[in-house]
Amino acid sequence: MTPVEPAPAPAPSAGTPDPTAVPDPAAVPDITAVPDTTAVPGAAGLTHPRRDLDELLTHAVRFSVVAALSGVLKAEFGAVRDSVEITTPMLSKQVALLEKAGYVEVEKGRVGRRPCTWLSLSTEGSAAYARHVAALRAIAGLDH
């Protein structure tokens, strides 16, 4: 049995790169290079408004809770849960994260014999919310 020789590859047509050609190393871009940020306007301070977004408030439920609390001195837990349309366990989890960050204050008490929990936005939480909303408005082009 004689080995079969492969047919010669057709010559590439004009304007079509030769797929078997070895690229010139000088012509291959270095994708590991760090970009030169000095050529980008404002890059020294990196001023895109997304940098002002609060990482904790990028979660829709936490943002909604803080937004609900932003217009009131304090709100009863159940009222916030109902206005944000989430379950009690979900609100508890998100409030715990916001409280740990210092954004929300939790006050427990009683109304008659019924236990009650009130939520309020701290000064730090109010400032974080204002910065986050300002960043969203700037990104959307609504800050004029």
TrEMBL record:
<dbReference type="InterPro" id="IPR036390">
    <property type="entry name" value="WH_DNA-bd_sf"/>
</dbReference>
<feature type="domain" description="Winged helix DNA-binding">
    <location>
        <begin position="61"/>
        <end position="139"/>
    </location>
</feature>
<protein>
    <submittedName>
        <fullName>DNA-binding MarR family transcriptional regulator</fullName>
    </submittedName>
</protein>
<keyword id="KW-0238">DNA-binding</keyword>
<dbReference type="Pfam" id="PF13601">
    <property type="entry name" value="HTH_34"/>
</dbReference>
<feature type="compositionally biased region" description="Pro residues">
    <location>
        <begin position="1"/>
        <end position="11"/>
    </location>
</feature>
<dbReference type="InterPro" id="IPR027395">
    <property type="entry name" value="WH_DNA-bd_dom"/>
</dbReference>
<dbReference type="GO" id="GO:0003677">
    <property type="term" value="F:DNA binding"/>
</dbReference>
<feature type="region of interest" description="Disordered">
    <location>
        <begin position="1"/>
        <end position="26"/>
    </location>
</feature>
<feature type="compositionally biased region" description="Low complexity">
    <location>
        <begin position="12"/>
        <end position="26"/>
    </location>
</feature>
<dbReference type="InterPro" id="IPR036388">
    <property type="entry name" value="WH-like_DNA-bd_sf"/>
</dbReference>
